[in-house]
Structure formats: structure tokens, C-alpha cells
Design brief:
This protein is an alpha+beta fold and 115 residues long. It has two helices and seven strands; from the N terminus they run E-E-H-E-E-E-E-H-E. The protein has a single domain (6-109), classed as Lp2179-like (Lp2179-like fold). Pfam families: DUF1831.
């Protein structure tokens, strides 16, 4: 999966783009971890019933020059991408997903694309 300026989750109609105002300290403030190569990764549980043993996890990665990102909802083991929009507990997962995305938007990390 390549880094893109705009992306969306599998099954989602809403796309998101990386903010022009993105800053490295903002990424760290919301919980992104910086890797040795300079890229940033955020992993958050989408399961409100079990935040520590996630059945579904949101993974967001931003490249080192802050020009692109990618995101995916993955199974708890992190091995395969899942479509949260078709899952039995989609309402709970979507509530968590939108909460996380709203926080990233407030911090000028991502911006929803208006159609």
C-alpha cells in the first residue's frame, strides 16, 4: 500500500486528504510513533468493548516528509484488512472510527474531502 495525498477506508465513501497544516509535533501529540526511517504510525482499537484486545484496529501511517498517508482497518492480529462497514458490529466500530478521525481533523492532520 503506497502513501497517497488522499485515501479512504475499504468500503467508505468518505475520502480524507493530508492537511497542509500537518506538523510532526501534532502527530506525536495524538499518539503517532515515529519509526527509524522517519515515518509515523498510529494504531487505535475500533472496538469500544475491548480497547486492549482489539478485534478491529485502525492503522494510520504518515510518510517522513508529511506529504502522504495511508490508513486501513485491520483485524486484531494486524494481518489482514477488513471492511468495518459490512461487519455485524459496524455501528460501534464506526462510532470509534469517526471519533478518531474527528480528533485528527481538529489537530490539522487530515481533512475530509468534500464531494
Amino acid at each position: 500500500m503506497a502513501f497517497d495525498k488522499t485515501t479512504k477506508l475499504q468500503g467508505d465513501e468518505q475520502s480524507y486528504t493530508i492537511s497542509d497544516g500537518i506538523k510532526k509535533f501534532s502527530l506525536r501529540d495524538v499518539g503517532f510513533n515515529e519509526s527509524k526511517n522517519g515515518s509515523f504510525t498510529l494504531k487505535r482499537s475500533l472496538d469500544p468493548a475491548s480497547p486492549y484486545n482489539a478485534t478491529v484496529e485502525l492503522k494510520v501511517m504518515v510518510n517522513s516528509d508529511l506529504s502522504g498517508f495511508k490508513m486501513a482497518a485491520v483485524a486484531g492480529n494486524g494481518m489482514r484488512e477488513v471492511n468495518i462497514f459490512k461487519m455485524d458490529r459496524k455501528d460501534a466500530f464506526l462510532e470509534q472510527f469517526h471519533y478518531i478521525m474527528d480528533n485528527l481533523e481538529e489537530r490539522e492532520i487530515i481533512v475530509p474531502v468534500t464531494h
